[in-house]
Amino acid sequence: MTNHLLSADNICVTRDGNNILDNVSLHIAKQDFITLIGPNGAGKSMLLKCLLEFYQPDSGEIRRKPDLKIGYVPQRLIAEPTMPISVQRFLQLRKKSSPQELQEILLETDTLALVNKPLSVLSGGEMQRVLLARALLDSPDLLVLDEPAQNLDISGQLAFYKRLDFAFSNRDISILMVSHDLHMVMSSTKQVVCLYHHICCSGKPEVITKDPEFISLFGEDMAKMMSVYHHSHDHQHDHSHNHNHQHNHG
Questions:
Q1: How confident is the model at residue 212 (pLDDT cuts 50, 70, 90)?
Q2: Which of 18, 98, 109, 169 sits at a 20 to 30 Å CA gap from 162?
Q3: Is the pLDDT of residue 229 over 70?
Q4: 34 and 129 share a domain?
Q5: Residue 210 phi/psi, 5° resolution?
Q6: Nearest alpha carbon to residue 190 among 205, 210, 172, 208
Q7: Beta bridge mates, 71
């Protein structure tokens, strides 16, 4: 298994005669930042469920590094107003953390001011920060996020991905994320995997936008927007970085 934290080989899931996942293989190593993209209904969330062992695939094999710690950020969490629970209480449920560790995570995710608030009154952006804080408690080896910024406005998305980038740059952590906002994570992600029931294409962000499979799934406009974004991003960094796209993270 070499240095893989998590490996999926030839995963198949069939429902009502339809192939949701068809021979999908994915390997996540230390210090990987992989963004999983694909149209709605492509099987992205199902793949995450299989990797997280929420769902048993019909065939294929999933292997984990022994004692692998995973932090998970769902798309959203609807808090029940009739069951008031504070942010602090929520963060400490099933999570053993020292007061110092909790304080550091609250500062890192900008949630310190929210600790005494009930979950049910949080805005979408505040809730996603709290979910990120909870996922980072225990110092996971792998952070898995399922469209974490889907319900946020543009400024909320930018702020969330900035925090994610900070966590990746400052922790010994790997990230697997499902996202529609590929242009937002172009500068962070090392590998893009394009899924449409099977893996259509995968590679570095700057390469994948030129792939015919990517263009056929997302259209010429998206591909052009992505390559323009990447081109301008590179130029901003010409003076201080080379272009291997792993410069930020060692």
A1: confident
A2: 98
A3: no
A4: yes
A5: -95, -5
A6: 205
A7: 143
pLDDT tens, 75-88? 878 777 777 899 99
Mean residue pLDDT of the chain comes to 84
Tokens matching residue 59:
């065939």
What is the pTM for the complete model shown?
0.84
pLDDT of 231 reads 47
* CATH code (residue 72): 3.40.50.300
Residue whose tokens read 């994570």: 185
Q: What is the pLDDT of residue 24?
A: 96
Within this chain, do residues 152 and 112 fall inside the same structural domain, yes or no? yes
233 vs 168, 208, 210, 211, 226, CA distance in Å?
19, 16, 17, 20, 10
The fraction of the chain above a pLDDT of 70, given in percent, is: 86
Rounded Cα distance, 171 and 140, in Å: 9
CA distances from 119 to 86, 88, 110, 127, 239 (A): 6, 9, 15, 7, 45
Kindly state whether residues 171 and 213 are assigned to the same domain.
no
Round to whole Å and give the CA distance between 25 and 154.
32
Alpha helices by DSSP H, listed for 56-153, are 87-92, 99-108, 124-136
CA 210, CA 181: separation in Å to the nearest integer? 17
Distances (CA, A) of 89 to 116, 121, 134, 158, 198: 9, 15, 11, 28, 41
Is 186 domain-assigned?
Answer: no
Give dist(CA 198, CA 43) in Å, integer.
9
| Residue in the structure block whose two tokens are 């994915």 | 26
